[in-house]
Write a structure and sequence with these properties.
The protein has twelve helices and no strands. By secondary structure, it is mainly alpha-helical.
Length: about 300
Amino acid sequence: MSDQEAKSNTAAAEGIVNIVSGAVMDPVTSEENPIGSVASEAANSNPPATPAPHSSLGELSTAEESERQAAFPHIFSQRVEKVRLKIKTELNNAGKAMAYLNLLEQAQNLVSQGSSYYEEAERLLSEVEYHLAFRERMARASRRVGIPLFFYEVIWFIILIWILIQINTVPTYEIIRNSSPITEVNLVHLLSSLIWGGLGGVVGALYALWKHIAKEQDFDPQYALWYLTNPVLGVMLGGFIFLVIQAGFFSLTAGVEPGLNIRSAFVIYVLAWISGFKQNVVYEIVRRILDVFRVETSPTSSGASAETGTER
């Protein structure tokens, strides 16, 4: 082997050694290959520190629960005193005030018996707090909605009374009576029945306002539509009562003997007012009228219908 070949073999061997040791220069960036240095640094670096042990979630929740159970009687007592003060200063219904105070006393007795009764005591206290909050909302609603509804009913009352007086004066009475398109129907009585029904609806709405705002103190603004429509519904029911009596169903609904004539129109007006004041009266009248027109079938025909699968 010549000296030149020996030198080239020696250079090749040195190149292989340099590649293995990671000391080769990168041809693109002309920088030293970092693979070898990174590997050596990783080998010489210290191992990561072991994290400190943490307490388990179960131990934390148990400790928090113990703290909450220990603080519950004190917090509960503060809430009870706050509610009791509100009852004494804001509630003006003696019956409900005594009922709420009894519930608070029961709740405090349950707390004194141990932590196993805390849940039931919390329920009783929450019930009293809910009722008091509900009454506060109803009180605000009665001032915001109830007062305008009161004036609405009063306006209806004034208008209906004015119309009732106008149609019963002598000149107007004769004009309306003579202009009736149906000779068998007294138009004045029909209009008066409509008005008396509307007056019954107005009085019923005013009574409901007094009951739920002043007496029960549980006024709910969601029923505002009932107060708005009650006078209109009373007018319609007053007309229905007039038609029922005019058609001759009075003996079937009022319980008088058949063939008895109505001598006074005030009987119509009274029934119209009652129907406007309490609509359940009309429902009972309708039910009795439907009973009159009910078709009774004999047992034989009923059995035949059941066998053939037909309906009557």
